[in-house]
C-alpha cells in the first residue's frame, strides 16, 4: 500500500454504474491504477457478461466485484474511502435520473458522482442542483476516445463544483491519456456547472465534421479515382504521417479500416468471417442511426447550440445532416427511385492524379480546421454567456491524446495562440493570423475539389459547405444585402446603410432605415 498514490488511497473503491462498452473498460482501468471496483448494471445480463470478461482479465491491481443488486452495490461502497466515489457510464437522459433516485437515500454529504455519459449540460446542471441539496457533488464529465481509450486512458472534461474537482482530478490524472509531447494528463477542470459536458458535446460536434470529410474523401478516391482500398489506406496513412493532418486519430483509424480484410475465422467473435476475399468495410451498410434512435444526442445538441449562440457552424451541421439523411435507408431508397439522382462517377480528364489527391488532402484539412474553429467558437460564446470561464487552450490540451478529434498539428497551432491573454475570450478563431493564413492558403485546393467533385456527382456535404463557409465568413460584401431588402419589404425589419458612420460596420444591431416598398 506504501506505493499507492494518495489519490487512490483517498477513495480506495469506486462504484461504476453501467457495464456497457465504456463502463466495463473503465472498471478494468480503475482496478489497474489500484482502486477496488464495484460495478453494477440495471441489466443482469450486462453484469454476467462483464463477470465473464473479468475471468480473462490480466494485470489488475484492485479487486473488482460485479454486482446485480443496487442495494448490495451501495453497501459495497460503504466505509471504504473518505467519501464515496461513483462513475456513471449509461445512456443519456432518463437513465441517470432513474439511477440517482434509486441510490439517493444511501448517498452522504461529500460523496462524488462523476457522470461519464454523453449528457446534455442542462440535465447535468439540474442534477447538480438536486445533489447539492444533500451535499453530494455531481460532476458532468465528458469521456472521449471510445472503449479502447476507456480501457487504457481517455481524454476527460469534468465540470462542476471546484472543491470536489480539486479532490478528484488527481485520481483522474492517473487514469487519463497522457500527451505524448509533455506527458501531461488529458484531463482538466473545465469549469463550473455544465461546462465539462458542454466541452464534450462540442468535441463530438467537431468529430462529426471531421468524419464526414474523411468519408467524402474515401468515396472520391474510391469511386472517383478508382483507387483500391489498400491504396486509399496508404494515402490516409501518408496524410496522417506528416503535414497539416499529422497524428490525426481519425485518419489513423481510416487507414486501418481501408486495410482490414476478411478472413476465414473473422475477428475474436467471428465477425468478418468469409472464405471469399474482401474487405470488412464492404460488410457495412451506409446507415448512421445514432441520431434517429436518440442513442446519442451530442452532435444534434451541438448544432442547436450553434444556432442559439449565433455561431455559424455549417461544417458541423452538414456532417450531422448527412448522417441523419443516411439513417432512414428505407425511406431514402424510395426517394432515390423518385428523384433519380446520379451516383458518383469516375473522374475523367485528370492530367496528374497526384495533384488532385494533394488538393483533396488540403480540402480535408480545411474541413478539420474549420470544424475546430466552429467548435471552439461555440464553446467560447457559451462560456461567456454562462460565465463558465472555460480556458480554450485547456480544451486543446485535453484533446491532445485519448480522444477522437486529436490532431497534433492543429493542437500545436491553436494552443499557444489561445494561451495568450488577449485571446482568452476570443469568439472568432479566424481572427488569429495563423488560422486565417492556413484557410487562405488552401482555398484554391478546396475550390478545385468541390468543382471537380460536383461535375462528377460526388458527395461533398462537409467539404462543399466548408468552401462556402470560408468564402462567406470573410466576405466583405455579401449578397445578404438582398435578403435584408426582402425582409424590409415584407416585414419592415429595417436596415443599416453602407458608408454611414455608426452603421457601417456599426454594431450587430438593427438599422433605423425602412423603405416603404409597397404600402399596405
Ligand atoms: N461508446 C463510445 O464510444 C462512447 C460512449 N460514451 C457515452 O458513455 C455512455 C455509455 O456508452 P456505452 O458504454 O457505449 O453504451 P452501452 O449501450 O454499451 O451502455 C449503456 C449502459 O446504460 C445502461 N442503461 C440504459 N438505460 C438505463 C436505465 N434506464 N437505467 C440504468 N441503466 C441504463 C445500459 O443498460 P441496457 O443494456 O439495459 O440498455 C448499459 O449498461 C453513453 O452516455 C455514451 O454516450 C462516451 C464516450 C464514448
Ligand atoms: O462520444 C463518443 C466519442 O467521442 C462516442 O463514440 C459516441 O458514441 C459518438 O457518437 P455520436 O457521434 O453520435 O456522438
From TrEMBL:
Keywords: Gluconate utilization, NADP, Oxidoreductase, Pentose shunt. Residues 196-518 form the 6-phosphogluconate dehydrogenase C-terminal domain. It catalyses: 6-phospho-D-gluconate + NADP(+) = D-ribulose 5-phosphate + CO2 + NADPH. Pathway: Carbohydrate degradation; pentose phosphate pathway; D-ribulose 5-phosphate from D-glucose 6-phosphate (oxidative stage): step 3/3. The active site is at residues 200, 207. It comes from the Eukaryota. GO terms for molecular function: NADP binding; phosphogluconate dehydrogenase (decarboxylating) activity. The keyword Oxidoreductase applies. Residues 498-520 are annotated as: Disordered. GO terms for biological process: D-gluconate metabolic process; pentose-phosphate shunt. Pfam families: 6PGD, NAD_binding_2. Its EC number is 1.1.1.44. PANTHER family: 6-PHOSPHOGLUCONATE DEHYDROGENASE. Homodimer. Catalyzes the oxidative decarboxylation of 6-phosphogluconate to ribulose 5-phosphate and CO(2), with concomitant reduction of NADP to NADPH. Belongs to the 6-phosphogluconate dehydrogenase family. This is 6-phosphogluconate dehydrogenase, decarboxylating. It comes from Penicillium decumbens.
